[in-house]
Protein backbone atom coordinates (compact mmCIF):
# COMPACT_ATOMS: atom_id res chain seq x y z
CA UNK A 1 0.00 0.00 0.00
CA UNK A 2 1.30 3.46 -0.93
CA UNK A 3 1.95 6.02 1.77
CA UNK A 4 -0.59 8.18 -0.10
CA UNK A 5 -3.22 5.63 0.95
CA UNK A 6 -2.49 6.16 4.64
CA UNK A 7 -3.88 8.72 7.05
CA UNK A 8 -1.42 10.80 9.03
CA UNK A 9 -1.93 8.38 11.91
CA UNK A 10 -0.55 5.56 9.75
CA UNK A 11 -3.88 3.71 9.49
CA UNK A 12 -5.16 2.68 6.05
CA UNK A 13 -7.90 4.92 4.66
CA UNK A 14 -11.30 3.45 3.77
CA UNK A 15 -11.91 3.08 0.04
CA UNK A 16 -14.55 5.85 -0.15
CA UNK A 17 -12.10 8.32 1.41
CA UNK A 18 -9.39 7.26 -1.01
CA UNK A 19 -11.72 7.79 -3.96
CA UNK A 20 -12.83 11.19 -2.65
CA UNK A 21 -9.26 12.33 -2.06
CA UNK A 22 -8.21 11.14 -5.53
CA UNK A 23 -11.12 13.03 -7.08
CA UNK A 24 -10.22 16.20 -5.22
CA UNK A 25 -6.60 15.95 -6.34
CA UNK A 26 -7.70 15.47 -9.95
CA UNK A 27 -9.90 18.57 -9.77
CA UNK A 28 -7.03 20.56 -8.21
CA UNK A 29 -4.67 19.49 -11.00
CA UNK A 30 -7.24 20.04 -13.72
CA UNK A 31 -8.10 23.53 -12.51
CA UNK A 32 -4.44 24.54 -12.64
CA UNK A 33 -3.88 22.93 -16.04
CA UNK A 34 -6.83 24.49 -17.87
CA UNK A 35 -6.11 28.01 -16.60
CA UNK A 36 -4.81 29.19 -20.03
CA UNK A 37 -8.12 28.27 -21.71
CA UNK A 38 -10.04 30.00 -18.94
CA UNK A 39 -7.96 33.14 -19.43
CA UNK A 40 -8.60 33.03 -23.19
CA UNK A 41 -12.34 33.05 -22.47
CA UNK A 42 -12.37 35.44 -19.48
CA UNK A 43 -9.20 37.49 -19.18
CA UNK A 44 -9.28 37.99 -15.40
CA UNK A 45 -10.27 34.45 -14.45
CA UNK A 46 -6.93 32.97 -13.30
CA UNK A 47 -7.76 33.58 -9.58
CA UNK A 48 -10.86 31.38 -9.96
CA UNK A 49 -8.75 28.43 -11.14
CA UNK A 50 -6.05 29.00 -8.51
CA UNK A 51 -8.54 29.32 -5.64
CA UNK A 52 -10.37 26.18 -6.79
CA UNK A 53 -7.08 24.29 -6.99
CA UNK A 54 -6.04 25.45 -3.50
CA UNK A 55 -9.40 24.61 -1.92
CA UNK A 56 -9.47 21.15 -3.47
CA UNK A 57 -5.88 20.55 -2.36
CA UNK A 58 -6.72 21.48 1.23
CA UNK A 59 -9.87 19.36 1.11
CA UNK A 60 -7.93 16.36 -0.21
CA UNK A 61 -5.34 16.76 2.54
CA UNK A 62 -8.13 16.90 5.13
CA UNK A 63 -9.80 13.76 3.73
CA UNK A 64 -6.45 11.94 3.86
CA UNK A 65 -5.81 13.15 7.40
CA UNK A 66 -2.66 14.94 6.26
CA UNK A 67 -3.84 18.51 6.82
CA UNK A 68 -2.17 18.95 10.28
CA UNK A 69 1.16 17.78 8.85
CA UNK A 70 0.78 20.12 5.89
CA UNK A 71 0.03 23.06 8.18
CA UNK A 72 3.12 22.33 10.29
CA UNK A 73 5.28 22.29 7.17
CA UNK A 74 3.65 25.49 5.92
CA UNK A 75 4.34 27.25 9.23
CA UNK A 76 7.96 26.09 9.07
CA UNK A 77 8.25 27.60 5.59
CA UNK A 78 6.80 30.88 6.85
CA UNK A 79 9.49 30.97 9.54
CA UNK A 80 12.23 30.98 6.88
CA UNK A 81 13.87 34.33 6.00
CA UNK A 82 11.79 34.56 2.80
CA UNK A 83 8.59 33.63 4.62
CA UNK A 84 9.23 36.21 7.32
CA UNK A 85 9.97 38.90 4.72
CA UNK A 86 6.70 38.16 2.92
CA UNK A 87 4.74 38.23 6.20
CA UNK A 88 6.30 41.56 7.20
CA UNK A 89 5.49 43.00 3.77
CA UNK A 90 1.91 41.75 4.12
CA UNK A 91 1.73 43.33 7.56
CA UNK A 92 3.02 46.67 6.29
CA UNK A 93 0.51 46.51 3.43
CA UNK A 94 -2.33 45.97 5.91
CA UNK A 95 -1.04 48.67 8.26
CA UNK A 96 -1.02 51.21 5.43
CA UNK A 97 -4.82 51.08 5.44
CA UNK A 98 -4.61 53.21 8.59
CA UNK A 99 -3.32 56.25 6.66
CA UNK A 100 -5.02 55.46 3.34
CA UNK A 101 -7.51 58.13 2.31
CA UNK A 102 -9.57 55.48 0.50
CA UNK A 103 -9.72 52.57 2.92
CA UNK A 104 -12.36 50.68 0.97
CA UNK A 105 -10.12 50.70 -2.11
CA UNK A 106 -7.15 49.57 -0.01
CA UNK A 107 -9.04 46.73 1.66
CA UNK A 108 -10.37 45.50 -1.69
CA UNK A 109 -6.85 45.52 -3.16
CA UNK A 110 -5.51 43.68 -0.11
CA UNK A 111 -8.11 40.95 -0.55
CA UNK A 112 -7.58 40.61 -4.28
CA UNK A 113 -3.80 40.35 -4.09
CA UNK A 114 -3.16 38.47 -0.87
CA UNK A 115 -5.87 35.88 -1.50
CA UNK A 116 -4.06 34.97 -4.72
CA UNK A 117 -0.72 34.87 -2.89
CA UNK A 118 -2.12 32.65 -0.13
CA UNK A 119 -3.65 30.23 -2.63
CA UNK A 120 -0.40 30.16 -4.61
CA UNK A 121 1.42 29.25 -1.39
CA UNK A 122 -0.98 26.37 -0.73
CA UNK A 123 -0.84 25.06 -4.29
CA UNK A 124 2.94 25.42 -4.49
CA UNK A 125 3.41 23.31 -1.37
CA UNK A 126 0.64 20.76 -1.84
CA UNK A 127 0.23 20.08 -5.54
CA UNK A 128 3.60 19.63 -7.35
CA UNK A 129 3.82 15.89 -6.58
CA UNK A 130 0.46 15.42 -8.32
CA UNK A 131 1.48 17.38 -11.43
CA UNK A 132 2.41 14.25 -13.35
CA UNK A 133 3.17 13.55 -16.99
CA UNK A 134 -0.54 13.63 -17.84
CA UNK A 135 -0.91 16.99 -16.10
CA UNK A 136 1.92 18.55 -18.12
CA UNK A 137 0.42 17.23 -21.36
CA UNK A 138 -2.94 18.69 -20.30
CA UNK A 139 -1.26 22.05 -19.66
CA UNK A 140 0.45 21.91 -23.06
CA UNK A 141 -2.85 21.15 -24.76
CA UNK A 142 -4.54 23.98 -22.85
CA UNK A 143 -1.87 26.47 -23.95
CA UNK A 144 -2.07 25.41 -27.61
CA UNK A 145 -5.89 25.51 -27.50
CA UNK A 146 -5.88 28.93 -25.83
CA UNK A 147 -3.49 30.28 -28.48
CA UNK A 148 -5.66 28.87 -31.27
CA UNK A 149 -8.83 30.32 -29.73
CA UNK A 150 -7.29 33.78 -29.41
CA UNK A 151 -5.86 33.77 -32.94
CA UNK A 152 -9.23 32.77 -34.39
CA UNK A 153 -10.99 35.48 -32.39
CA UNK A 154 -8.46 38.13 -33.39
CA UNK A 155 -8.51 37.11 -37.07
CA UNK A 156 -12.32 37.27 -37.13
CA UNK A 157 -12.43 40.67 -35.45
CA UNK A 158 -13.86 39.11 -32.27
CA UNK A 159 -17.10 38.51 -34.14
CA UNK A 160 -18.36 35.96 -31.61
CA UNK A 161 -17.96 38.42 -28.75
CA UNK A 162 -19.75 41.07 -30.81
CA UNK A 163 -22.61 38.65 -31.33
CA UNK A 164 -22.79 37.73 -27.65
CA UNK A 165 -22.60 41.36 -26.54
CA UNK A 166 -19.36 40.83 -24.61
CA UNK A 167 -16.29 43.06 -24.53
CA UNK A 168 -14.73 42.94 -27.97
CA UNK A 169 -11.61 45.10 -27.53
CA UNK A 170 -8.68 43.18 -28.96
CA UNK A 171 -6.41 44.17 -26.08
CA UNK A 172 -8.43 42.01 -23.67
CA UNK A 173 -6.15 39.12 -24.61
CA UNK A 174 -3.09 40.92 -23.24
CA UNK A 175 -3.60 39.30 -19.83
CA UNK A 176 -4.16 35.91 -21.47
CA UNK A 177 -0.87 36.12 -23.35
CA UNK A 178 0.97 37.14 -20.19
CA UNK A 179 -0.42 34.13 -18.34
CA UNK A 180 0.82 31.84 -21.11
CA UNK A 181 4.17 33.64 -21.05
CA UNK A 182 4.86 32.82 -17.38
CA UNK A 183 3.61 29.23 -17.69
CA UNK A 184 5.95 28.59 -20.62
CA UNK A 185 9.37 28.14 -18.88
CA UNK A 186 8.32 25.23 -16.65
CA UNK A 187 6.54 23.44 -19.50
CA UNK A 188 9.46 23.96 -21.89
CA UNK A 189 12.03 22.43 -19.55
CA UNK A 190 9.64 19.58 -18.69
CA UNK A 191 9.46 18.75 -22.40
CA UNK A 192 13.25 18.82 -22.56
CA UNK A 193 13.55 16.46 -19.60
CA UNK A 194 10.83 13.95 -20.37
CA UNK A 195 10.45 13.59 -24.12
CA UNK A 196 12.81 12.22 -26.72
CA UNK A 197 14.15 15.23 -28.60
CA UNK A 198 12.28 17.26 -26.01
CA UNK A 199 14.01 20.50 -26.96
CA UNK A 200 12.29 20.31 -30.35
CA UNK A 201 8.91 20.15 -28.61
CA UNK A 202 9.95 23.01 -26.33
CA UNK A 203 10.94 25.14 -29.31
CA UNK A 204 7.71 24.17 -31.06
CA UNK A 205 5.74 25.35 -28.01
CA UNK A 206 7.58 28.67 -28.05
CA UNK A 207 6.91 29.01 -31.79
CA UNK A 208 3.18 28.48 -31.23
CA UNK A 209 3.19 31.14 -28.50
CA UNK A 210 5.15 33.58 -30.66
CA UNK A 211 2.75 33.05 -33.58
CA UNK A 212 -0.23 33.73 -31.33
CA UNK A 213 1.35 36.82 -29.75
CA UNK A 214 2.10 38.24 -33.20
CA UNK A 215 -1.65 38.50 -33.74
CA UNK A 216 -2.25 40.34 -30.46
CA UNK A 217 -1.50 43.77 -29.05
CA UNK A 218 0.47 42.88 -25.93
CA UNK A 219 3.80 44.61 -26.26
CA UNK A 220 4.57 43.63 -22.65
CA UNK A 221 4.21 39.91 -23.46
CA UNK A 222 6.57 40.24 -26.43
CA UNK A 223 9.15 42.02 -24.27
CA UNK A 224 8.68 39.39 -21.57
CA UNK A 225 9.20 36.56 -24.07
CA UNK A 226 12.38 38.12 -25.42
CA UNK A 227 13.70 38.62 -21.89
CA UNK A 228 12.76 35.07 -20.85
CA UNK A 229 14.58 33.48 -23.80
CA UNK A 230 17.61 35.76 -23.43
CA UNK A 231 17.93 35.23 -19.68
CA UNK A 232 17.61 31.45 -20.05
CA UNK A 233 20.38 31.34 -22.66
CA UNK A 234 22.67 33.59 -20.65
CA UNK A 235 21.96 31.79 -17.38
CA UNK A 236 22.71 28.45 -19.02
CA UNK A 237 26.26 29.57 -19.82
CA UNK A 238 26.90 32.01 -16.94
CA UNK A 239 24.46 31.25 -14.11
CA UNK A 240 26.30 33.06 -11.32
CA UNK A 241 26.87 36.16 -13.39
CA UNK A 242 23.20 36.33 -14.42
CA UNK A 243 21.92 35.81 -10.88
CA UNK A 244 24.30 38.53 -9.69
CA UNK A 245 23.08 40.85 -12.43
CA UNK A 246 19.49 40.06 -11.47
CA UNK A 247 20.14 41.07 -7.87
CA UNK A 248 21.89 44.25 -8.98
CA UNK A 249 19.04 45.08 -11.36
CA UNK A 250 16.45 44.77 -8.59
CA UNK A 251 18.49 47.11 -6.40
CA UNK A 252 18.90 49.60 -9.25
CA UNK A 253 15.23 49.77 -10.29
CA UNK A 254 14.09 50.03 -6.67
CA UNK A 255 16.45 52.88 -5.84
CA UNK A 256 15.76 54.67 -9.12
CA UNK A 257 11.96 54.24 -9.08
CA UNK A 258 11.08 57.78 -7.91
CA UNK A 259 13.25 59.17 -10.73
CA UNK A 260 12.62 56.67 -13.54
CA UNK A 261 10.25 59.09 -15.28
CA UNK A 262 12.70 62.02 -15.63
CA UNK A 263 15.56 59.62 -16.42
CA UNK A 264 13.55 57.90 -19.17
CA UNK A 265 12.37 61.26 -20.50
CA UNK A 266 15.97 62.33 -21.07
CA UNK A 267 17.38 58.95 -22.12
CA UNK A 268 14.82 57.72 -24.67
CA UNK A 269 15.11 59.47 -28.06
CA UNK A 270 12.01 60.76 -29.81
CA UNK A 271 12.38 58.33 -32.73
CA UNK A 272 12.14 55.40 -30.28
CA UNK A 273 8.83 56.76 -28.97
CA UNK A 274 7.64 57.12 -32.57
CA UNK A 275 8.48 53.49 -33.32
CA UNK A 276 6.75 52.37 -30.11
CA UNK A 277 3.75 54.65 -30.47
CA UNK A 278 1.42 51.65 -30.65
CA UNK A 279 2.70 50.54 -27.23
CA UNK A 280 2.25 54.04 -25.76
CA UNK A 281 5.86 54.41 -24.64
CA UNK A 282 5.64 58.22 -24.52
CA UNK A 283 2.51 58.05 -22.38
CA UNK A 284 4.16 55.58 -20.02
CA UNK A 285 7.08 57.92 -19.43
CA UNK A 286 4.69 60.79 -18.72
CA UNK A 287 2.82 58.59 -16.23
CA UNK A 288 6.09 57.68 -14.50
CA UNK A 289 6.95 61.36 -14.24
CA UNK A 290 3.60 62.12 -12.59
CA UNK A 291 3.75 59.29 -10.07
CA UNK A 292 7.42 60.02 -9.38
CA UNK A 293 6.43 63.57 -8.44
CA UNK A 294 3.84 62.15 -6.02
CA UNK A 295 6.45 59.85 -4.48
CA UNK A 296 8.81 62.74 -3.83
CA UNK A 297 6.02 64.59 -2.04
CA UNK A 298 5.32 61.64 0.30
CA UNK A 299 8.34 59.30 0.26
CA UNK A 300 8.23 57.61 3.66
CA UNK A 301 4.82 56.01 4.20
CA UNK A 302 3.17 56.25 0.80
CA UNK A 303 -0.50 56.85 0.12
CA UNK A 304 -1.74 53.41 1.23
CA UNK A 305 -1.94 49.96 -0.34
CA UNK A 306 -3.90 49.85 -3.60
CA UNK A 307 -4.71 53.57 -3.66
CA UNK A 308 -3.27 54.18 -7.15
CA UNK A 309 -6.71 54.07 -8.88
CA UNK A 310 -7.71 57.05 -6.71
CA UNK A 311 -4.32 58.75 -6.60
CA UNK A 312 -5.60 61.81 -8.44
CA UNK A 313 -8.01 62.47 -5.54
CA UNK A 314 -5.52 62.19 -2.67
CA UNK A 315 -4.15 65.08 -0.67
CA UNK A 316 -0.62 64.43 -1.90
CA UNK A 317 -1.82 64.81 -5.50
CA UNK A 318 -2.70 68.42 -4.73
CA UNK A 319 0.99 69.07 -4.00
CA UNK A 320 1.99 67.87 -7.47
CA UNK A 321 2.16 70.45 -10.23
CA UNK A 322 -1.03 70.78 -12.26
CA UNK A 323 0.74 69.62 -15.42
CA UNK A 324 1.71 66.32 -13.79
CA UNK A 325 -1.48 65.86 -11.78
CA UNK A 326 -3.75 64.78 -14.64
CA UNK A 327 -1.98 61.48 -15.32
CA UNK A 328 -2.36 60.43 -11.68
CA UNK A 329 -5.88 59.42 -12.72
CA UNK A 330 -4.78 56.62 -15.09
CA UNK A 331 -5.34 53.85 -12.51
CA UNK A 332 -1.76 52.77 -11.76
CA UNK A 333 1.75 53.83 -12.82
CA UNK A 334 2.39 50.85 -15.14
CA UNK A 335 5.56 50.12 -13.18
CA UNK A 336 5.67 47.91 -10.09
CA UNK A 337 8.57 49.61 -8.23
CA UNK A 338 6.95 53.02 -8.78
CA UNK A 339 3.61 51.70 -7.52
CA UNK A 340 5.20 50.20 -4.41
CA UNK A 341 6.96 53.48 -3.65
CA UNK A 342 3.75 55.43 -4.32
CA UNK A 343 1.56 53.35 -2.04
CA UNK A 344 3.94 51.93 0.59
CA UNK A 345 6.81 54.41 0.64
CA UNK A 346 10.45 53.65 1.25
CA UNK A 347 9.57 51.00 3.87
CA UNK A 348 7.51 49.03 1.36
CA UNK A 349 10.20 49.46 -1.29
CA UNK A 350 12.90 48.07 1.02
CA UNK A 351 10.71 45.13 2.03
CA UNK A 352 9.84 44.32 -1.60
CA UNK A 353 13.52 44.52 -2.54
CA UNK A 354 14.40 42.17 0.33
CA UNK A 355 11.88 39.62 -0.95
CA UNK A 356 13.25 39.88 -4.50
CA UNK A 357 16.84 39.38 -3.33
CA UNK A 358 15.87 36.39 -1.17
CA UNK A 359 14.10 34.83 -4.17
CA UNK A 360 17.19 35.33 -6.33
CA UNK A 361 19.28 33.73 -3.58
CA UNK A 362 16.91 30.74 -3.44
CA UNK A 363 17.02 30.37 -7.23
CA UNK A 364 20.82 30.32 -7.17
CA UNK A 365 20.70 27.17 -5.04
CA UNK A 366 18.63 25.22 -7.58
CA UNK A 367 19.99 22.68 -10.07
CA UNK A 368 21.43 24.28 -13.19
CA UNK A 369 18.46 23.68 -15.53
CA UNK A 370 15.87 24.68 -12.92
CA UNK A 371 17.90 27.77 -12.01
CA UNK A 372 18.11 28.87 -15.64
CA UNK A 373 14.37 28.41 -16.19
CA UNK A 374 13.51 30.09 -12.87
CA UNK A 375 15.66 33.10 -13.73
CA UNK A 376 13.92 33.23 -17.12
CA UNK A 377 10.53 33.22 -15.38
CA UNK A 378 11.62 35.88 -12.91
CA UNK A 379 13.18 38.00 -15.67
CA UNK A 380 10.06 37.92 -17.83
CA UNK A 381 7.81 38.77 -14.87
CA UNK A 382 10.11 41.62 -13.85
CA UNK A 383 10.20 43.00 -17.40
CA UNK A 384 6.40 42.99 -17.54
CA UNK A 385 6.28 44.60 -14.11
CA UNK A 386 8.44 47.48 -15.28
CA UNK A 387 6.21 48.43 -18.21
CA UNK A 388 2.90 46.67 -17.79
CA UNK A 389 0.12 46.00 -15.35
CA UNK A 390 -0.75 47.05 -11.81
CA UNK A 391 1.25 45.47 -9.00
CA UNK A 392 -1.68 44.02 -7.04
CA UNK A 393 -3.98 42.74 -9.77
CA UNK A 394 -5.23 39.33 -8.69
CA UNK A 395 -5.10 37.75 -12.15
CA UNK A 396 -1.36 38.49 -12.42
CA UNK A 397 -0.56 37.20 -8.92
CA UNK A 398 -2.59 34.05 -9.63
CA UNK A 399 -0.87 33.46 -12.97
CA UNK A 400 2.57 33.84 -11.38
CA UNK A 401 1.53 31.56 -8.52
CA UNK A 402 0.46 28.86 -10.98
CA UNK A 403 3.73 29.27 -12.90
CA UNK A 404 5.72 28.72 -9.70
CA UNK A 405 3.75 25.57 -8.88
CA UNK A 406 4.49 24.13 -12.33
CA UNK A 407 8.17 25.06 -11.93
CA UNK A 408 8.30 23.21 -8.61
CA UNK A 409 6.74 20.19 -10.32
CA UNK A 410 9.34 20.39 -13.10
CA UNK A 411 12.05 20.53 -10.43
CA UNK A 412 10.60 17.39 -8.81
CA UNK A 413 10.73 15.60 -12.18
CA UNK A 414 14.32 16.75 -12.70
CA UNK A 415 15.43 15.45 -9.31
CA UNK A 416 13.72 12.11 -9.93
CA UNK A 417 15.26 11.65 -13.40
CA UNK A 418 18.77 12.59 -12.26
CA UNK A 419 18.74 10.65 -8.96
From TrEMBL:
Its main location: membrane. It is a multi-pass membrane protein. Residues 218-352 form the O-antigen ligase-related domain. The keyword Ligase applies. The chain crosses the membrane at residues 20-42, 48-70, 82-99, 105-123, 135-152, 172-191, 198-214, 245-263, 340-362, 369-388, 394-410. One of its GO terms (molecular function) is ligase activity. Keywords: Ligase, Membrane, Transmembrane, Transmembrane helix. It is found in: Membrane. InterPro entries: O-antigen_ligase-rel_domated, WaaL-like. The keyword Protein transport does not apply. PANTHER family: LIPOPOLYSACCHARIDE BIOSYNTHESIS PROTEIN PA4999-RELATED, TEICHURONIC ACID BIOSYNTHESIS PROTEIN TUAE. This is O-antigen ligase family protein. It comes from Microvirga terricola.
Amino acid sequence: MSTLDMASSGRPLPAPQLRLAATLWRIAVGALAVMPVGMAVAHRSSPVFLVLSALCSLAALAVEGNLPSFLRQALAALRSPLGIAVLVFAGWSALSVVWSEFRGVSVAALGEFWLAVACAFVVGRALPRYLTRQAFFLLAGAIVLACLMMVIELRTGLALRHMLGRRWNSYIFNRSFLTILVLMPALAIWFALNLRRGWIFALGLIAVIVAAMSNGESGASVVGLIVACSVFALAWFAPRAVSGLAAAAFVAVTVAAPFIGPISDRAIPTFIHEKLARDHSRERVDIWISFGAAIREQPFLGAGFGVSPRMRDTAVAQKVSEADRTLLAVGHPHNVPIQIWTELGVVGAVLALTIALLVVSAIRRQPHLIMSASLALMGSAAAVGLIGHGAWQGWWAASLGAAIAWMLAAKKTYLETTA
